[in-house]
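Usage example:
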Amino acid sequence: MELFFQSVINSFIQGGFFALWAVGLVLVFGVMGVVNFAHGELVMVGAYTVWVLHSQYGIGYIPALCIAVLLVMFIGLLMERFLFRPKQGDPLGGLINSIGVLFILQVAALVVGGTGPAKQVAPPFPGTLIIQEFLRIPNQRLFSIAVAVAALLLLWFFLTKTKLGWSLRAVALDREAAALQGININRTSMIAIGVSGALAGLAGALMAPISNIYPTMGHNVIITAFIVTIVGGIGSLSGAVLAAVLYAFLHTFVTAYFSGTIATMCGLLIMVLVLIVKPTGIMGQKVSE
Amino acid sequence: MLLSLQDVHVHYNKIAALQGISIEVEEGDFVTLIGSNGAGKSTTLRTISGLERPSAGEIRFKNQSLTRLPPDRILKLGVAQVPEGRRVFKDLTVLENLHLGAFTRGDQAAIKSDLESVFGHFPRLLERSQQLAQTLSGGEQQMLSIGRALMSDPILLLLDEPSLGLAPIVVEEIAKILLEINKRGVAIVLVEQNAELALDLAKRGYVLETGNVALQGEASSLARNEHVKTAYLGI
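Running the assembly step on the lines above writes:
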């Protein structure tokens, strides 16, 4: 019973992370038409930034988190300007460029952190919230989920309530029609990848104190983000968030009662099933024309 | 002269879509481009809006070259387009679609008054302002597409096949509104398969054939031309 309740709590926390990973991928794919394979590495850079600044140089956790967000956002902007923009209308070219970035960032992490065991960051918010004897939530995880949910709500507000947000969705729906309204496609792409990078950096910074930090930690991120994106419906942000929470429950429970490897296998199996049975995903729509 | 195209060529890969088109539009003009499928009517509008790049020739609007400008800059100069197939943003509401039409404008009071004038032209858009654009009928989507273009407060309005797939009564309603818009001083370039309707509305016309201007003149005299009659009016 204790395992059950604990798994429910863990599922929500995982779901917040899964959603944070996936929406950035969805946003860039929707607006720019690029599958950013380096998205997981952007999360990894966020985590490394916190490890370097907080654990190595003693800078406070919150300032380190803010710097991680800005740094990863900046890397995203550089990618847009120099790697994706020259490959506009060439999804394969953009994808290959992003794979190049993936390897560069992994090697950069090796250079910064060296080989050896995974890095860890001591939780800046120690202690545990005990609701019941069988229901405990470490404060660090509580902080992470609160910030993740706040970031997702902020993104939702931006995309549905502001004119700039509408312009992003318009470009994702129909680039040409958006350009005909005077929306600058390059500027919109910068905003999309800036937001995506900031969310990736934030996710990494939030993960740093509660998970292992190593150069290839982005693999897990990108696989999960793909599962969530495809199950949720490619290009649908609300679908991605819903699928993130659902998949988090599946993943957490299968991990708790069986193992993490089987959990990821289940996820990939579901992804393949969705692609065969309903390729548009649970919330996705058919693309017209 | 408001808009002029001089000897404009456009190629898709290596296939010539426009082979030296020259067109002139005066302030407050109502010009139509007619011709069969593949004659280059849509390509002409797309090129004016900057969606296609001419391989040769010059496009000028209010004495400024448009030839190398991106679509958003061209819109800002006052050239709006209602694209073929309406192309409304289906997952956004009617109101959000209209506000995106005014994306480049900052003057909230002017936007508000233009929004009211669009709702004046199309009362049905007001009734449905909170609905998603995908829930509208074809005719309503066309009205939304026109309304969205008007929200940029254009000097020149380009329309690509606005009557396509619409019921005759809706076509009539839209035709009436185009005349009203033109009367308020907005110049119009109308591309139409329905040549009879187009020549009835417009002051002047160009007949395009395989990427060239085959005929041009007053709309009323084009409507009496024997070649136009047999080829495009089915008389």
